[in-house]
User: Which sequence fits this backbone?
């Protein structure tokens, strides 16, 4: 199920669009890496792109913390030209030393620059511990 938008939003991640669970269990404090990939299309002027944050809410907390390096301003995909319409399958990953617990992950997409539209489809999200 493609998601098309023009303002920042949490991406819908579920089995219908090919993604995996957004909940995961860390059994022993350790480095955990989370990877997000999706088909992506940005239309807009040549300063436009979509920034992605992979963010985790640790068990017992109420806020989502973006994982580096996705916590920074990272372009997931961009049009490339003034009138470009370039489809890509893009991927980004974030990681941290995570405590024991049942944690939740979400992916935030943030259109930046003069974006006309962002289209995200065929999402895949997986946790490596
Ligand atoms: Ca980011």
Assistant:
């Amino acid at each position: 199920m493609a998601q098309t938008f023009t303002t920042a939003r949490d991406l819908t991640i579920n089995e219908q669009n090919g993604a995996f669970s957004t909940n995961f269990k860390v059994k022993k404090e350790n480095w955990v890496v989370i990877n997000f990939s999706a088909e992506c299309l940005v239309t807009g002027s040549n300063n436009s792109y979509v920034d992605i944050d992979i963010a985790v809410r640790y068990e017992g907390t109420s806020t989502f913390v973006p994982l580096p390096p996705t916590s920074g301003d990272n372009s997931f995909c961009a049009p490339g030209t003034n009138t470009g319409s370039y489809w890509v399958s893009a991927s980004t990953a974030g990681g941290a030393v995570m405590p024991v617990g049942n944690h939740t992950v979400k992916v935030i997409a943030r259109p930046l620059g003069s974006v006309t539209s962002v289209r995200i489809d065929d999402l895949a999200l997986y946790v490596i511990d």
Observations:
- Residues 3-128 form a domain with the Jelly Rolls fold (CATH 2.60.120).
- The chain is about 0% helix and 60% strand.
- The two ends are 28 Å apart (CA to CA).
- The chain has one domain: 3-128.
